[in-house]
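Here is an idea for our session: we take a single protein and study its fold together. Which protein we use is up to you, so please pick one and set it down. Once you have written the record down, we can walk along the chain together:
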Amino acid sequence: MKFNKLSKEKKQHLIVTIVIILAVLAGLGNYLILGGNRHLDTLKQNQVAALGKLEEMQKTIKRREQVETAFKETSDRLTVLESGMATGDLYSWVQSFLRKFQRNYRIDIPQINPISQPGSVDLLPGFPYQQASLSVAGTAYYHDLGQFIADFENEHPLMRIANLSLNLSPAASAAERDKLAFRMDIITLVKPTTAPGKI
């Protein structure tokens, strides 16, 4: 069928029909192409995110040995620290420890009161260890006592001194009139029967 042989009215209908079909096809094509492009963009973003996760997992797998080594070192350090915690007969342990440490200082500690029963740590809630405390009293010169306390807390991080009170020593002779009488609490962590985190 030739276009020239058609009547004017049929030509117009044919042209309108072709224009409508082309418009519908263009709209449909545009919709499908844009939708497809959006879908492709989403797929690319998902692919980038998945590749990022994969890379992170591969890095974690490569760091496994480092993590295991760090965990072993931390466990060993915890074991060493726990070996310095009070254990067994707590009063005897603390008294022996204190007497041994005291030897290097010009400080006199004649009074060591009984130790409390182990209880929860009042400094940190939910701490996996328990603590026990006892009061001690004695005499020393100000500088000697300060050196003793500083060295004690620096060398023994699992123990602390609290409630320190100082007074002039009432029983000091004239030569020792600058001597101080002190009273303080020594708080120590107590080694558990099973290590925290181990079942």
Summary: The mean pLDDT is 83. The longest strand covers residues 130-140. DSSP finds four helices and five strands in the chain. Residues 8-62 form the longest helix (55 residues).
